């Protein structure tokens, strides 16, 4: 079947002013408790690298979320804030979403970007070490965002690097900015998770599809979830692995007051899950494969009426498009929010928050 | 043979101030009838997608051409007009010319660009749907330019997209901005085509090499040609296909007062063609192949002395380089003009024409 | 072994303010003789292409080095100097270092960039000639930086090109901006090489690994070395080729007062070499291969205490990382300086030096 471009043009004319799809919580909600930004907290990120979710305590995550909210509300003019700075995007592992998200974020705050989108064109292809590539970035940029298939890449690049580095995903280890975007979405949706006191019977039940010990988005997301133990009742991890957490995470989870259990019955758990964190793939020890139907969600799934679904995207058959136009769809807003979160991180790393908001907004 | 760079340096020293090659009509010619811009006409493009040549009537094509002429004449300073905007170039089908042309245009008006130059590095490679990729661009950019091998891509990307999209070529369907550039060149060459009244014996005879129904540049070019029926006498389509037009185009052509016929004898037709629209390839039902010698032009071809040749480029053997330094060569100017046309479109889409020219230039 | 990102984050916290590694000479040294810039000399580059080291006499090399020093010292605000200009990076041969170096340079002076990082996505893949690609750049950019595997590419691109071109490496012919960066590093290290009068017994002995006649970085470096014959005693070329220079170079070298000899014994020569220019590869007539151990340097090599090593990078086993933290390491500073040199060239090509420094700095 073909739909000629001329027909599409007619259709778009009619849809020119349509609203965003899915659940789009108002960022103002995040700002109703304490609208001012704690600049001493944000200052921890000055000239810092953002490599792991472990660097974020509840305070820092909240202040970054609040700054992101101001940016998303477009309250202040920041489009020249970083005009003298260059961000290098070093993507040794292909990615469109994360790379374009960072580039868009940097350009929106007036910054400049240089990119390596494909490892085959880089020095690595010539056998150059990651240490030397790290040294190279000292001369070309003021901050570098890295994605690599190997966990060790962050450490190796870091050896000679003297500029801040943002981890855009290192193998199966971490993806901290994705997790920050995930929680920014959840805190817009229910700011009381961070700022309020949820009665016991309404504390959150979260379901996570995947194997945190082996999947970077899930690992980072879970680490940040533990920060909100006061308002989270329970986390269920749906995985087919024997040991889904791995050592480091298991210790953190054992020490947390949040009840954490493991299950293989997603469909049977839907009736009590408030948040479902979905993924496209499962690591099973013998390689990546796609989820079976048991782990799929669609408009017929027996979700609670107010359940929200997160997904780092790209998605496949595990998350049906017939959920897109429902209020369960927080995953589009989650991806959209990532650009504001990355703008916030860049402003904080370069100590330009003071230049971007009025003084009386800072405490 | 080698020519060392040192020798080339000497040669370039001598040629530093050389003039452009080929036929370079003065853009002032376009502005001599009504120099003022009809802003109500240009406003039709505000926040609009540009997907098909069918969106352009004669008025809009003329006003865009006039605005392009002002930009080419560098009369007004526009290099910050779109400084707060981001254009995404999503090129799922490789292209250097079109991508760089758009990027250059956006940067020249102060805008920012992010790019996907190679589909192998995108989510599509991960099996992500074009609908989801369209949704993604909502967050990363203010306008997206798309090129894809499949006709359907424009419709699929458009499903969730809420920002304007410019069609940079969708399969064999359309390439509207290329056609606008083609006609911008022709209107600079003979503005009376649009603005004047050409006596019958001097009305244009146009030759088009190719199969409009299956070749996007040719299809879009022909659609715009029909707008100038008052001053075009005849269009000859040189194709080896049984049905070169396809249904939609055939209806448009049948309804047009312009005489349209089909021929396989390009060489025998040269003596009466004023404009020849060449192409590198012919779609023949069994795949693309290159033209035979019958469809080649060179300095020995029996062209009328004032015939101009268009070609969307890249070109191969069908268009000989020995024509480059002749007045027949309008194809270099055609490619050059495309950047100004794309600047004009971007300014109109973002409603920044008023910011770019003096008020007294607008009616 | 894995090092989790969380651990790297801790380590980087401790190293946040660490100093650059290796030998980092103060650019002020270059400015102590005649701090003012000879604008008549820099004006030779106005609208000029930079294709060959042969274009640089001692005066021009020195003035470019001085301008680079001012830029590296960040004495003047240049971050909008070229805001209305576009640089195209046309990299038909993959390179990360050179492309990112030029992009970083252009962005730092306020310019804009468009890039072709991979020839497979270009018109060349469609069989388009380099002449036509040169013509294309006239419309898209104000300056084009080119790297290509073929020597002839510079001449072919140049045929229709009307904007300045910078040669980023054409086959085995030249790499002039790399050589300028090499000598910028050496002049920062010992400005008396250019500006002073070194007593005979302290004049420089330089060792060059490689085959200048066949290796572009080495050829360009050697050509510039000959400019400093007053303060260079001897150049030894370590190559296994029968005719390492080729005709053009041999004539230049024969005419030079500098003593030039050939050797295969690098290790036995270390005791008298002040500067060693290393390379990763050797052209041997039957293709490129890596150097044997005889041509490797490491912390145990019997270098003079104050010998400095240059290397255009990427490096392999020929230059051991255990030299990185020693004062022999000038190769990191050499790469860093290349960005400042490229900024200086761009400012000079576009005649924006006057806009970038105070009038009283110019003579």
From TrEMBL, chains A, B, C:
It comes from the Bacteria. PROSITE patterns: CARBAMOYLTRANSFERASE (PS00097). Keywords: Transferase. Transmembrane segments: none annotated. InterPro entries: Asp/Orn_carbamoyltranf_P-bd, Asp/Orn_carbamoylTrfase, Asp/Orn_carbamoylTrfase_sf, Asp_carbamoyltransf_Asp/Orn-bd. It holds the Pfam family OTCace. Residues 204-348 form the Aspartate/ornithine carbamoyltransferase Asp/Orn-binding domain. GO terms for biological process: 'de novo' UMP biosynthetic process; amino acid metabolic process. GO terms for molecular function: amino acid binding; carboxyl- or carbamoyltransferase activity. Reversibly catalyzes the transfer of the carbamoyl group from carbamoyl phosphate (CP) to the N(epsilon) atom of ornithine (ORN) to produce L-citrulline. This is Aspartate carbamoyltransferase. The lineage of its organism: Bacteria, Pseudomonadati, Pseudomonadota, Alphaproteobacteria, Sphingomonadales.
């Amino acid at each position: 079947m073909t739909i000629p471009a001329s027909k599409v043009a007619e259709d778009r004319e009619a849809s020119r002013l349509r609203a965003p799809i899915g659940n789009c919580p108002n960022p103002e909600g995040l700002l109703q408790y304490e609208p001012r930004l704690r600049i001493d907290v944000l200052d921890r990120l000055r000239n810092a690298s953002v490599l792991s979710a472990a660097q974020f305590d509840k305070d820092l995550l909240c202040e970054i979320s609040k700054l992101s909210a101001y940016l998303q509300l477009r309250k202040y003019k920041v489009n020249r804030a970083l005009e003298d700075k260059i961000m290098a995007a070093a993507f040794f592992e292909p990615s469109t979403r994360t790379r374009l998200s960072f580039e868009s974020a940097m350009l929106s705050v007036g910054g400049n970007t240089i990119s390596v989108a494909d490892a085959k064109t880089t020095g690595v292809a010539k056998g150059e070490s990651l240490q030397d590539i790290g040294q190279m970035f000292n001369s070309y940029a003021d901050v570098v965002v890295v994605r690599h298939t190997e966990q060790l890449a962050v450490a190796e690049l870091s050896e000679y690097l003297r500029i801040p580095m943002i981890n855009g995903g290192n193998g199966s280890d971490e993806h901290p900015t994705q997790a920050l975007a995930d929680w920014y979405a959840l805190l817009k949706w229910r700011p009381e998770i961070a700022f309020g006191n949820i009665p016991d019977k309404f504390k959150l039940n979260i379901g996570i599809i995947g194997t945190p010990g082996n999947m970077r988005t899930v690992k980072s997301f879970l680490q940040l979830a533990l920060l909100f133990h006061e308002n989270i009742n329970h986390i269920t991890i749906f995985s087919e692995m024997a040991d889904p957490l791995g050592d480091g995470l298991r210790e953190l989870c054992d020490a947390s007051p949040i009840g954490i259990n493991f299950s293989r019955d997603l469909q049977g758990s839907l009736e009590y899950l408030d948040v479902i964190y979905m993924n496209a793939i499962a690591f099973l020890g013998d390689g990546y494969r796609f989820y079976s139907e048991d782990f799929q969600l669609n408009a017929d799934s027996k979700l609670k009426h107010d359940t929200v679904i997160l997904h780092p995207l790209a998605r496949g058959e595990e998350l049906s498009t017939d959920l897109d136009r429902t209020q369960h769809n927080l995953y589009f807003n989650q991806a959209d929010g990532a650009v504001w979160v990355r703008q916030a991180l860049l402003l904080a790393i370069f100590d330009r928050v003071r230049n971007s908001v009025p003084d009386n907004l800072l405490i």
